[in-house]
C-alpha cells in the first residue's frame, strides 16, 4: 500500500544518501589487520569453521572470510567480542533453558545475568571514554545473546548512569560507584501514561519546600503515572524522574530530572509514598521489567535535583545559566540523542542475526529442481536471492553507518563535557541530532522488514520459535517506537533540513555542517536540473550514480515539502497546522 | 527496500484489479435490510453503543453505522454472529485467564474449548452446504476470539472432514458422524520435514501387501517425518496421511491420501509403530498443537485408501479413472484450494481487528496541539489518517473479495460433487485456483503490514501484550506461509496468466473465463496504448480510473514477464531455469 510523507521520506532519503557518500565510508584503522590468515590457521579468535552442511556453500566464496572479518572489525575488537561470547557460552547461568520461562522467572533470570555481567567486568569504567566503540560492542554482544539482558544492563549503566553524570554535578557523583557495583539499580523515568512523544506536557510535579529544603515529587493522577520505564517493574532502587519544577510562589520552571529512591535496596520493598509495579507482558523483551510508578508527595533532598542546567538555592530561588525555557528543556533532554544512535546499532544487530539465520537455512534447504530427482538449495533461486541479499548489503551499510555516527556522537559528548560552547559544537549537536533522528528510523524499519522477509523466506520452519526469527522481530519492534516514535522523529530531521533552506533564503547563510552531510544542498535548487544520463546497467554500478540520484531526490522532496509548507502558511494556517498538513504525500517510506 | 518480481507483482495487481472491478462488487441480497434503525432502538442484535471516551468521535460520523452493518452483513448473518459471540462471552471456559498460560495449559484449554464449540452446535451439518457463508462466519467469529481455537476446529471439521468426504467414497462415510461428535479427532498430514512446497517430492510410502490386504505406511527417515501438522502434536486420533502408493512389483502411483489411526481415542496413547509428538513453541497460535509423526511399517486396511481418484483391487491392481499422474496429483490435492480462500478471509479478520483497535486508540489518545494547553486526538493528524485509513478501506474491500471468492468456490465444489466434467467446470477450477493463489498473498500481506502499521501507530502502548496487536501479528503470520508460501503461490497464478497468452498466441484461443476476471486481457497488447488522461485529482475519484490503471499495469507486467520468459527460452534455458530467471524484476510487492 502506497503511503508516506514527503518530509519524512525526504529525511530518510537524506540518511540513505549519507550511507552512500564517501564521508560515511571512512575506513576504520586496522593497521596490520590485513595480513592473510590461511584456512589452516588455528587462531583462537578466528578458528576455522567446522565442516557441516554449510561447507559446500562456504567453499564457493569468492573472498577469504577471515580477511573480511579482520578488515571490518579489526583484531582488537574481534578479540574483545570473542572474550564476551566465550564467557557467556561457558557460564551455566547463560544456558538457554529448555522450553519457555514464565514471565516472573524470565525477569528474575535476566536480573541475575545482568549482575553477572558486572562481575565479568568486560569493560572497565576507564574504558568507557577510552575505547568508545567497545561500549557499543558490549551492548551488541549482550543483545546477540538476549536483548532483555542488554537493555537491562544498558538502561542501568548508560541511561541512568549517564543521566546522573551528564545532567548532575559533583554532588551526584557519589551515585556512580554504587552503579558500577550494582549496590543501587537504576532506571530513567520520563514517559507517563498519557504522554510519550510530547515530553513537555509531562505532569509529574516537584514543588520546593524551603522550610525543610526538600522537593516534593507528586503524581497528580493516574494519567501522570510514570509508565513503560525499563527496570522499574521489579528491580530498580533508584530512578531519574522528570518532573515540572515549581518554586515557592508557584512559578513553574519546566521539566527537570531528579534522583528519586524507589525501593529499599535490601528488600526491594517500595519506599513510602511510591506506588510501583510491573506493566505486564509485552510483545517482546519480556526479560526486562518495564514498570509504572506514582508518587504521593514523596520528599527528596534539594540536592537530588540534577542541577547541570538549573538549580535551587536553599531559600528557593531558581538559578540557571540557560537563557530560556526552550534551551533549558533541550539541555535536560540532551542525553536522549545517544539513545537513538544506540538503537540504530541495536537494529543492525537484529538484521545481521536474521539475515545470517535465513541465508544459512537457504543454503541447506533444498526444494524443487530441474528434474524430479535433483533438488536445488533454495538460495540458488533468483527469487530467494532477491529477497535476502539486499538485506545482507543493508546490514553491512548500516553497521558502518551506526558505528560512524556513534563516533561522531562521542566527539560531541567530549565537547559537551569540556564545556565547549563554540558555534561549531552547537552546529555539530544539531547535525547529529538530525542524523540520529533519521538514522534510527532507517535502521529500525529496515531491520523490521528484513526480519519479516527472513521469517517468510524460511517458510514454515521460520515460524518455529526455536529458530529465533520471532524473538528477533519482537525484540526489534520497540526500536521503531522508543526514544521517539519513528514517524515523529523524522519530523525533527525535516525541521532541521527545512530550517537550513529558511536560513539561506532569509539570511543568505551558506548551507554547510561540521560533518558535511548537508553541504551538497548548497547546490539546491540547481541540482534539480541534473538529469540521469546512464544508458546501461553498468553505468549504475559506480556508487556515484545512486549517490547523485539520492541527492536529486532529497532536493526534490525538500522542494515539494518547502513549497507545501509555504502554501499552507500563506493560506492562513498557523505553524502547527501547516506542519501537520505537509507531513503526508504520495511518497513512500524507505 | 525495493524488491519484487514482475510475474508475481503482475499476479497481485491482477487480484487488486479484481477488487476494483464491478464483478467483485455484487451487492449481497439484503432485502428489507435497509430499513433505518434509530439510535434509540433497543434491537438486541445491534444495541446502541455505550457512551464512553469514543462517543465524541462516533457522534461525528457522517452515516448511520447500523445501516452500514445491516447493508454489509444482512440481518440473518448479524444474528448468527451475535449468537456465537454471546455464547462465548457467557461461558467461563472462554474467559481470558489473567496472566499468560504455559504452552501445555494453553493447548489443553484450546482442546476443551474446541469440544465445547461442538456442543454449542452453532452450525448444523446440514447448514454446511445450505448456508455456505455461515461456515466462513463461524470460523471467523472463533478466530476473532482466538485463532488457535478457530484453526483447531477448522482443521478437524473442514480440512480433515472434507478430505475424507471429498477424497474418499461411501466406504469412508462411517468416519463422518464420529467427526461431528468428536469421537475421533483429525488432522491433515501432508508436509514433511524436508518438503513443504514441493509436495510431489514427499517421501512417506504406502506399500500394498495382497496377502493381508493391507497397506504399509512407512517413513524412510527423519526427513520424511510428517511435520507442522496442526492437531497432531497432542490430540489427533486420526490423520489423513499423504504417501507415495506402491503396488506389488514396486510400481509407484504417486501421492495418495490414507486414513491412518494415530492414537487410541480413549487414552491418547500412540498406536503401535507411530512415533508422534509436539513440535514445540511457535511464533503464534500456540494453543494449536502442531506435531510430527514417523510411521514404522504401520499396517492399515486396504479400505483406508481414500479412493476417489485411484484404488487398489484386493489382488493389488491399481485402478483409476484419471488419465495420467499429473491429473491424479492435482485431483488428490484439489482440496487445498479451499484452504487458500479461507486464509484470505482469516487475514481480513486480523486486519479488521487491528484497524479497529488502532482507530479507537487514536480517537482517544491526545498528544501535542496548537497550544501547550490544548492537545489533539492523534487521529486528527493527517499523518495518522494516512497511516491507518488505507488499511480500513482495504479491510472493507478484502472482506467483500474474500466472501465473493468463497461463494465462487462453493459453486465449484458443488459441480465437483455433482461430477460435472464440463469444460466450463474445468475452466472455473483453474480460474478460482489462480484467484485464490493471488488472493491469499494479497490478503495475508496486507494484513501483515496493516497490523504492523497499527502497532506502530499506537506508539509504546501498542507494544503492550494486552492490546492484542502482537497476538494478531503473530497469529496472522502463518497466513503468509501455510497452504503455500505466498511467493510460491504467486507463481501458480503467473503460470495461469502466462498460459492464457500462450494459448492465444499459439492456438488463437479467446481470453475469457467463467468469472470474467481475465476477459479484459483480450484487449492485450492494444490496451498498453491507453494513456492516463486525468488532469485533476477529481478525475481519479471515479473508480473506473484506478481500474483502468490496474488493467494497464497487469498488461505491462505480463508483457515484460512474457518477453523475459521467451528470451530465456530462446537463449537455451530449460523451462525450470527460464521460469526462475524471470521471477525477479524491478517491480515491488503490493
Keywords for this structure?
homodimer; disordered N terminus; alpha+beta; Butyryl-CoA Dehydrogenase, subunit A, domain 3; 6-stranded mixed β-sheet; globular; 4 domains; 590 residues; disordered C terminus; Butyryl-CoA Dehydrogenase, subunit A, domain 2; 17 helices; 3-stranded antiparallel β-sheet
Brief overview:
Chain A has 590 residues and is of the alpha+beta class. Chain A contains 17 helices and eleven strands.
Structure overview:
Two copies of one chain form a homodimer. By secondary structure, chain A is an alpha+beta fold. Chain A has four domains: 88-175, no CATH class; 186-319, Butyryl-CoA Dehydrogenase, subunit A, domain 2, CATH 2.40.110.10; 333-516, Butyryl-CoA Dehydrogenase, subunit A, domain 3 (Up-down Bundle), CATH 1.20.140; 525-530 and 541-589, no CATH class. Chain A has helices spanning 6-20, 55-59, 65-73, 75-90, 103-120, 127-130, 132-145, 147-167, 175-180, 325-332, 336-364, 382-417, 423-457, 469-476, 486-507, 544-570, 575-581, and strands spanning 186-189, 205-209, 214-218, 226-230, 238-247, 251-261, 274-278, 290-295, 298-301, 311-312, 318-319. In chain A, strands 1, 2, 3, 5, 6 and 9 form a six-stranded mixed β-sheet that branches. In chain A, strands 4-8-7 form a three-stranded antiparallel β-sheet. A two-stranded antiparallel ribbon of chain A has the order 10-11. In chain A, strand 2 and strand 3 form a beta hairpin. In chain A, helix 1 packs across helix 15 (486-507) and helix 7 (132-145) packs antiparallel against helix 8 (147-167). The first copy, chain A, is globular, with a radius of gyration of 25 Å. Chains A and B meet through helix 12, helix 13, helix 14 and helix 17 of A and helix 12, helix 13, helix 14 and helix 17 of B.
Amino acid at each position: 500500500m502506497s503511503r508516506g510523507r514527503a518530509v519524512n521520506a525526504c529525511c530518510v532519503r537524506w540518511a540513505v544518501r549519507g550511507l552512500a557518500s564517501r564521508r560515511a565510508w571512512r575506513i576504520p584503522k586496522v593497521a596490520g589487520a590485513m595480513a592473510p590468515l590461511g584456512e589452516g590457521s588455528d587462531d583462537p579468535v578466528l578458528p576455522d569453521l567446522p565442516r557441516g552442511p554449510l561447507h559446500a556453500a562456504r567453499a564457493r566464496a569468492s573472498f577469504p572470510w577471515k580477511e573480511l572479518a579482520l578488515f571490518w572489525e579489526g583484531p582488537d575488537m574481534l578479540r574483545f567480542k570473542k572474550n564476551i561470547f566465550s564467557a557467556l557460552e561457558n557460564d551455566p547461568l547463560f544456558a538457554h533453558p529448555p522450553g519457555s520461562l514464565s514471565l516472573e522467572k524470565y525477569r528474575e533470570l535476566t536480573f541475575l545475568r545482568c549482575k553477572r555481567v558486572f562481575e565479568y567486568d568486560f569493560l572497565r569504567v576507564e574504558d568507557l571514554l577510552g575505547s568508545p566503540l567497545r561500549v557499543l560492542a558490549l551492548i551488541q554482544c549482550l543483545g546477540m545473546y538476549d536483548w532483555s539482558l542488554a537493555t537491562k544492563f544498558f538502561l542501568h549503566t548508560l541511561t541512568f548512569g549517564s543521566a546522573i553524570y551528564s545532567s548532575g554535578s559533583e554532588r551526584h557523583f557519589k551515585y556512580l560507584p554504587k552503579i558500577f557495583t550494582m549496590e543501587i539499580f537504576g532506571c530513567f523515568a520520563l514517559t507517563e501514561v498519557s504522554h510519550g512523544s510530547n515530553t513537555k506536557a509531562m505532569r509529574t510535579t516537584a514543588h520546593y519546600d524551603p522550610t525543610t529544603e526538600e522537593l516534593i515529587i507528586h503524581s497528580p493522577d493516574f494519567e501522570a503515572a510514570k509508565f513503560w520505564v525499563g527496570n522499574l517493574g521489579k528491580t530498580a532502587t533508584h530512578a531519574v524522574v522528570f518532573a515540572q519544577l515549581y518554586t515557592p510562589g508557584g512559578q513553574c520552571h519546566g521539566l527537570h530530572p531528579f534522583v528519586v529512591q524507589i525501593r529499599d535496596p535490601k528488600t526491594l520493598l517500595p519506599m513510602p509514598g511510591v506506588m510501583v509495579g510491573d506493566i505486564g507482558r509485552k510483545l517482546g523483551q519480556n526479560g526486562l521489567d518495564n514498570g509504572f510508578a506514582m508518587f504521593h508527595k514523596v520528599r527528596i533532598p534539594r540536592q537530588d535535583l540534577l542541577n547541570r542546567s538549573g538549580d535551587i538555592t536553599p531559600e528557593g530561588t531558581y538559578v540557571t545559566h540557560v537563557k530560556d525555557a526552550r534551551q533549558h528543556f533541550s539541555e535536560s533532554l540532551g542525553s536522549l540523542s545517544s539513545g537513538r544512535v544506540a538503537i540504530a546499532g541495536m537494529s543492525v544487530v537484529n538484521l545481521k542475526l536474521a539475515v545470517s539465520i535465513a541465508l544459512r537455512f537457504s543454503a541447506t534447504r533444498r526444494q524443487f529442481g530441474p528434474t524430479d530427482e535433483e533438488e536445488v538449495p533454495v538460495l540458488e533461486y533468483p527469487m530467494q536471492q532477491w529477497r535476502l541479499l539486499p538485506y545482507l548489503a543493508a546490514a553491512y551499510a548500516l553497521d558502518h553507518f551506526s558505528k560512524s555516527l556513534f563516533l561522531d556522537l562521542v566527539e560531541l559528548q567530549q565537547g559537551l563535557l569540556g564545556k565547549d560552547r563554540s558555534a561549531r559544537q552547537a552546529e555539530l549537536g544539531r547535525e547529529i541530532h538530525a542524523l540520529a533522528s533519521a538514522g534510527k528510523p532507517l535502521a529500525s524499519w529496515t531491520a523490521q522488514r528484513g526480519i519479516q522477509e527472513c521469517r517468510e523466506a524460511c517458510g514454515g520452519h521460520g515460524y518455529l520459535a526455536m529458530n529465533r526469527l520471532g524473538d528477533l522481530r519482537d525484540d526489534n519492534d520497540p526500536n521503531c517506537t522508543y526514544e521517539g516514535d519513528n514517524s515523529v522523529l523524522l519530523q525533527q530531521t525535516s525541521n532541521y533540513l527545512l530550517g537550513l533552506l529558511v536560513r539561506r533564503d532569509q539570511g543568505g547563510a551558506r548551507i554547510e555542517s561540521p560533518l558535511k552531510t548537508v553541504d551538497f544542498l548548497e547546490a539546491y535548487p540547481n541540482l534539480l536540473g541534473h538529469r540521469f544520463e546512464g544508458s546501461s546497467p553498468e553505468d549504475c554500478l559506480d556508487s556515484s550514480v545512486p549517490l547523485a540520484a539520492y541527492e536529486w531526490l532529497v532536493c526534490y522532496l525538500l522542494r515539494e515539502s518547502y513549497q507545501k509548507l509555504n502554501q499552507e502558511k500563506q493560506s492562513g494556517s498557523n505553524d502547527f497546522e501547516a506542519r501537520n498538513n505537509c507531513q503526508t504525500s504520495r511518497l513512500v517510506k524507505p
